[in-house]
Amino acid sequence: MSNPSHQYRSSFLGLLAERGQLQDCTDAGGLDARLQKEHVTGYIGFDCTAPSLHIGSLSQIMILRRLQQSGHRPIVVMGGGTTKVGDPSGKDDMRSLLTNEQIEANKQSIRKCFERFLTFGDGPSDAIMVDNADWLDKLEYIPFLRDVGRHFSVNRMLTMDSVKLRLERDQPLSFLEFNYMILQAYDFVELFRRYGCTLQLGGSDQWGNIVNGIDLGRRVAEAELFGVTSPLITTASGAKMGKTAKGAVWLNADMLSPYDYWQFWRNVEDADVGRFLRLFTELPEAEITRLENLGGAERNEAKKILANETTRMLHGDAAANDAAETARRTFEEGGIAEGLPTFEIERARLSEGLPLTTLAQLSGLTASSGEARRFIQGGGLRVNDEAVSDVKAAVSLADLTAEGVIKLSVGRKKHVLVKPV
RNA sequence: GGGGGAGUGUCCCGAGCGGCAAAGGGGGCGGACUGUAAAUCCGCUGGCUUCGCCUUCGUAGGUUCGAGUCCUACCUCCCCCA
Description:
Helix content is 43%, strand content 14%. The protein is an alpha/beta fold and 421 residues long. The radius of gyration is 25 Å and the shape is elongated.
């Protein structure tokens, strides 16, 4: 249920609604009033299951940013504690357990990217970052059960989607994971006590966890807490956001280059452009309306703007400009742009002549020489923009272009420059 | 504790009388068509020094000329009984 923005008086809820990031809300009227009259502290928790967040989390990050822009205080909660337990929501099978060392390393790696989206500090609307391991690790089992566990009915826990879906599909659910919702609920209460946090935000799959936290807060702390969820973001064709052939679309530059990040946004489906501009940029509504109504090939202009804006926000102006320029030269001029991935090889090896399949594999263009062979057979591999048909073709210094490199390509979009050294 | 069932190509789902690099989907990638889009059609979707060799079907052994397929033990999960 998407609510028209005019229903809300507070700038924050109005903004979320306008941007398509409002799915559900507990006591919308009460929260709306609260947001108008005081600084509200709100949080979102992030798992530490990987060394980087990916764009599946980007909508959540944008929500925290919008919370801050609306004058409120965001808390980024790193799930250093809850990741040790594993959230069963939306997953069919049990995740393999990460070691404490892995979780800690992931946490350190993830935290950096928030600085690009939020302003941290000590002011009333400055963001703070905390790790729920700070309090979860120290819990004592029996006292915790008596203080918190008694407020949870197993009967009701079994009806929560995260649990119910597993059971219905005969998928295993360990007792460890079963506890996740209790810990997340407890997080909310702990954040209320420590920071006066009264709002939890999250994806729609977190609704149950959020409501549990609100209930628990009322029971153990007489707190009036609120919850807001945002829609699960999918592409127009229904796929989950962010999976590509190479894997997830990571936010950390060392996991996915700014150029590839830019390309991801440049290549979204037509039908997604307007929605993504609203979700992932801060362009004004009027401009987005104009862009999404561009027809035919002009739609590409809207995609470039989407790519520029999203890349700029994550990686900065310089990286976004570089990516755009590299793309322009590669695709619009069909030329050779320095921004493309470059592979260096000893001049001597090249002078002897090297099988193309080997070079494609070495340079990382293809995963194996066998894959390179298949691409050649399928007419998908090019040297200096010319298709190669001979599986046994060799490459040598004679293939250097005027720029002194050899451009290898697979498909329209994947290129590597081979440079002799 | 007892009985029954399941684990297949490291993207997923899923067939598989002892001859299997292993059916079929989905997804992905490449080609054609386009606008670096969608839809459609075609092809590919273990590795290598490729007329051949090597590694794969939960783990470890065994039977066999030959095992994903049979036997034994173990691990994990599901269901039923206690």
